[in-house]
Design a protein that fits this description.
Layout lengths: L3 H10 L3 E2 L2 E2 L18 H17 L2 H10 L4 H10 L4
Antiparallel strand pairs: 1-2
Helix pairs in contact: 2-4
């Protein structure tokens, strides 16, 4: 059985865990690794990198529609993923 310290450590490893609560979901208690949004910062960065690579691989029309729809700054996103600042 995990100690309270181990559970809290895993919660704190989540990219969304800030100041003792989840910044993504409106929940009273963090579900830790059981949460469907639980992801470490490196996992988040890898997922973002994959998404950016997918967007870049699209034809120009679809790529530009997505960039405009979500107001993406691709250069900033790429540097944020590789730079590790969590952008």
């Amino acid at each position: 059985m995990d100690s309270i310290e181990q559970v809290v450590k895993r919660e704190q490893d989540c990219f969304a865990y800030k100041n003792g609560k989840c910044k993504i979901l409106r929940v009273l208690t963090c579900e830790g690794t059981n949460c469907s949004f639980y992801k470490t910062l490196p996992e988040l960065q890898m997922d973002r990198q994959k998404a950016l690579e997918h967007i870049q691989a699209l034809d120009a029309t679809n790529r530009n529609e997505i960039i405009n729809l979500y107001k993406l700054d691709i250069e900033k996103q790429i540097s944020g993923v590789s730079g590790g600042d969590g952008s």
